[in-house]
């Protein structure tokens, strides 16, 4: 039961390379452990009466805990709800994970900007969000497909079905310029 996560891939995530999946999971696991340790170091800002660095350290430790619960639930097997939360997070699309991790990583930067432990600890969580964002964009087309598409568009043969499309927007509309308003 503890090791059920790494093998369970969803059908929608098959276009992502295996190494990128493991990079996101690995950076999330290692980065969250480092963020927790550096968050403790950041809490020493209380000795210098820097309350914002104390709050940033607490936030960084909580963010590290949340990321490790989502990425490596086997590290927190003694807590009952961890597997349920991890399974729920695994069913979410990659862009949801990216926004969530980046949102968790940003507040310590604004609270304690000068601390190197904030930059490194929260930066690794931010990097995990960036990797998941790249995974959400999907695989790049082959060189031959890009050449064919560019040649068709340049020749004016591009149909809406053969034009490149964004993966994130299913209802995209062509951009149109209606012209300047007529004077009254």
Automatic annotation (TrEMBL):
Gene Ontology molecular function, alphabetical: calcium channel activity
InterPro entries: TVP18/Ca-channel_flower
UniProt keyword annotation of Lipoprotein present: no
One GO process term, biological-process aspect: endocytosis
Residues passing through the membrane, by range: 27-49, 61-82, 94-111
SMART domains from the UniProt entry: Cg6151-P (SM01077)
PANTHER family for this protein: CALCIUM CHANNEL FLOWER HOMOLOG
Family: Belongs to the calcium channel flower family.
The protein's name: Calcium channel flower
Organism: Papilio xuthus
